[in-house]
Design goal:
The protein has helices spanning 3-8, 15-18, 21-38, 43-46, 53-70, 82-85, 93-109, 114-131. It is mostly helical. The termini are far apart.
């Protein structure tokens, strides 16, 4: 068997695996939360959660579970759907873009490969309509 034939038999890694599994996604989510709280364009949305540590911990865990399950991991997301979660937040297109920029910057910091960043970006774009102006 040649190397080319052998590579055809290799199952590609899921996005979940490429992001480092639950451990990697947890580190990414923690850094994204920090980035949001420091981003002058959107920090007013996130800073109040610092004064509600139990709520912040719950949101953090739901986010970890959501991205773990949505990226192909063996994790069950038990949180609310996106429209219900973001109801009343009236997130603008600009704010959504700031969130996406923070996420992509954190992926760069974690040295996530370009293909995986494209996959994450596709997920973020697919969620846009369910999150904005709710």
């Amino acid at each position: 068997m040649t190397v080319a034939q052998d590579s055809k038999n290799v199952t590609p890694k899921s996005l979940f695996e490429r992001l480092g599994g639950v451990e990697g996604i947890t580190l990414i989510v923690d850094d994204v939360i920090e980035a949001h709280m420091n981003n002058p364009e959107i920090k007013e949305i996130f800073i109040p959660y610092k004064e509600q540590p139990e709520l912040l911990a719950s949101i953090r865990q739901h986010t970890i579970d959501f991205f773990s399950a949505g990226s192909g991991g063996p994790v069950e997301y038990k949180g609310r759907d996106m429209p219900s979660t973001h109801k009343g937040m009236d997130i603008t297109a600009h704010q959504y873009m700031c969130v996406m920029d923070d996420i992509l910057s954190v992926l760069d910091e974690h040295e996530i490969d370009e293909e995986s960043k494209k996959d994450v970006l596709a997920i973020l774009w697919s969620l846009k309509g369910t999150i904005m102006h709710k």
